[in-house]
Structure formats: structure tokens, C-alpha cells
Write a structure and sequence with these properties.
Distance between the termini: 22 Å
Number of domains: 3
Order of helices and strands: HHEEEEEHEEEEEEE
Structural class: alpha+beta
Strand content: 35-45%
Largest sheet: 5 strands, antiparallel
Shape: extended
Length: 242
């Protein structure tokens, strides 16, 4: 399972733990206090458990933020934490807290920062826009994989020979967004069509109806006249998942 999946499981456990601790830990009224130290420690320990499940190479650090001090909250006997819909436990995130037993029902959000450390490529020296990456431009180092939304580049083969779309500083983590998108083929070119299924693959040829940009679906017309959609996967090559 991916690291983000383990984090989701961990925070489901966090929510359950906070619900158990809610009554004694959150005797709130009038203003929003700092998070109870015992509950904060419980949150961190449960989140760090996800790090051990994710593997030895992943080191996860959770920073629990504070509620807005300007909040005025009615007294509450039971506060339930929950994950807001669409929450991604990666980088800056938040946990919802709602009062389920009190004179007034309220809902607030507790900010958290999830840092996921792992080995990835960083620039050995400043790299400017338009420069072409060579084998000596990058080195492996431990970085915060969750520091940016764009994925960190871990494989040198993916990066070497690529053109920089954004400048990076020495020691900065190389991200996919820093690299110019590759065009694997142009509309009208003949391309190899590879259909991949469970335990088999079938190859053929077709003519590209749209340009084949990396990471974007493209359409081809096969020799039989069928129009298929797939993902460009290399020089004049497109893959169809069956």
C-alpha cells in the first residue's frame, strides 16, 4: 500500500482515539484552548505507527497545529474528530473537530502538517530554466517528499536528458513539475500500440490522431480502423490497459 494509504489508516485510528479521549481532554467553553498535551501525544504516536508500517525507508513526522484563538466555542461534553471529505494526509492538512454533545453544536478544523521523509534526487548546483540535466547534476539525499504537491523524482533515468521548466537551487528536491513535459510523438505519426493485460501483451501499429504528451491520454487509429485511447509511454509508443 502507498504511504498516503497508510496515513489514511493511521488517521482513522487517530480519530477513534481522540473520540475516546474527547470527554476528559476537551472541557471547552468560551474560547478555544491549546490541544491537550496527552491527546496531542496520542495523535503523534498513532501517526508515527504508520511510518513503521510504511517501511524503514519512510520517516513520518506529524506537527499538530493550533485552533484559531479568535474562536468562541460553547461548552461541549463530547468532541468528535473526523477527516473532512477529500482530505489528503500529505503536507499541510486538517482534522475536523465537532461538538456532538453540548448546548450548541459547532464544527472547527485543527491544522496539521505531515512530513514524509525519503530518498530522492536533489540538485548538486543551481539549475536554470532551459538547462538539460546530466548525470552529474543530481545526487540522492533525504528530502521531505510531502513538501510540494508535485512528486519528487527518485529515478535518475527519469530525469537525465530532460529540460528544466523551472529553476531549482542547490540542495533542492527535484520535482516532476520542474521538468518540461516530453512529447513522445506528433499527430499523424505512426506509433507502436501495446495492449497490456493480466499476464499478456499484444503489439500492433496505428496512426496518432492527437499528439502524445507525457502523462496525457492520446488517440490512435489502428490498421483495422478502430480508434483507441491510451497513454504515451515512450518514443512513438502508446500503451492501452485492458
Amino acid at each position: 500500500m502507498e504511504i498516503s494509504g497508510f496515513l489514511s489508516v493511521a488517521f482513522a485510528r487517530i480519530a477513534a482515539a481522540l473520540m475516546l479521549a474527547a470527554a476528559p481532554a476537551f472541557a471547552w467553553g468560551d474560547v478555544a484552548p491549546a490541544l491537550d498535551a496527552a491527546v496531542e501525544d496520542q495523535v503523534k504516536q498513532l501517526a508515527l505507527a504508520a511510518s513503521r508500517q510504511a517501511g524503514a525507508e519512510a520517516r513520518i513526522d506529524i506537527e499538530v497545529g493550533q485552533l484559531d484563538r479568535r474562536l468562541r466555542l460553547a461548552p461541549c461534553r463530547r468532541i468528535e474528530p473526523y477527516l473532512p471529505p477529500g482530505t489528503r494526509l500529505w503536507g499541510k492538512a486538517r482534522i475536523g473537530l465537532r461538538c456532538s454533545d453540548g448546548p450548541s453544536r459547532w464544527n472547527v478544523y485543527l491544522p496539521i502538517t505531515v512530513r514524509v521523509y525519503g530518498r530522492a534526487l536533489v540538485a548538486k548546483a543551481p539549475l536554470g530554466v532551459g538547462s538539460v540535466l546530466g548525470p552529474g547534476d543530481l545526487v540522492q539525499a533525504e528530502v521531505d517528499l510531502a513538501e510540494e504537491a508535485s512528486m519528487a523524482v527518485m529515478d535518475a533515468e527519469f530525469a537525465v536528458g530532460r529540460t528544466m521548466a523551472r529553476a531549482v537551487n542547490a540542495g533542492q528536491s527535484l520535482r516532476e513539475a520542474h521538468l518540461k513535459t516530453r512529447q513522445w510523438f506528433a499527430a499523424g505519426e505512426m506509433v507502436k500500440v501495446l495492449a497490456v493485460g493480466a499476464g499478456f501483451s499484444v503489439a500492433g501499429e496505428g496512426r496518432a490522431l492527437t499528439p502524445g504528451w507525457e502523462g496525457q491520454p492520446a488517440r490512435v487509429r489502428t490498421e483495422s480502423g478502430r480508434v483507441l485511447t491510451g497513454m504515451p509511454s515512450g518514443e512513438r509508443r502508446i500503451e492501452l490497459a485492458l
